[in-house]
Prior knowledge:
single chain; mainly beta; disordered N terminus; 45% strand
Amino acid sequence: MLLKKPNGSTSSLSSYTGSVGSKPLVTKSRSKLKQAVGRTSSDFEIGSSTTTPILDGCIKILNTIDVGIAVMCSQFSPDGRIFAVGLRDGKIKMYSREAGTHLHTLSDSEVKMHQLPVTAIRFKPDTGSQKHKNTLIASYASGHIKFWHYTTQECMHTTVQTGQTLAVAFSPSAAQYLTAGTNAQITLYDELTKQETLTLQASMSRDKMDGHRLRVFAIQYHPLNPHEFVSGGWDNTVQFWDDRCEHAVRRISGPHICGEGLDIDDKGRHLLTASWRKHNALQVWDYSTGTLQTDVPPGLTTSLVNISEH
């Protein structure tokens, strides 16, 4: 599980490991890994009450890394050996998990010109194909979507969308990918051609909530059902989709998602949501029925959470 609790902007990133109850827990605390909300890293002192992580259960700090600028998003590689950190100025820094060593910085002339935040990062799933190795996709507040070969630091492809792009996701086979952002629509692309194949959105009916009405901040494919995915955003709903259909097939109401606050466990049974609110911020739902299972963990119920990973 990866939790990020934004209470301000900082450049320090902390990794944790442990468990809550019987569940393994790997977290990056937003007490040190925060979204930019008008403050700078100088507003926080390491060790002060505003930055000290809350540790509950069998959790220990593995490493703390100063990346030099506000962190906006992060993601582990499929094998867990490296992780990518998206920064406020548009750069992506790659680090080794074991030593915390800085490996690569991903940037090009467009990133340097716009200097707008990285909003989401996803590594290409490991499908056994050599062409999928060492590749990630990133979205930017500028509307850019970039494919990076991170070991050579080469940008292999760029798409520019209208408005801000806030979320990206690969299908389990990596044959398709999704993007979403400020226009409340979700766009499906063919990975090989990088061409749009379908726009998924709410219908015009006032009697149905079969899609989003406001910004979409998170998208997550089901790990076992290749056409199913969920999305969440500002309209206090999590929408369930089939990527062959224009409109959502069902929804749950409640989660107020303002970042990468969705994940599904490897067996596809439980959905994790992280909401930007002080109470009941982190919740686990039954994927099949959409019923709420629990609020977890108790020690974080009064924290604003916007990013989670199961």
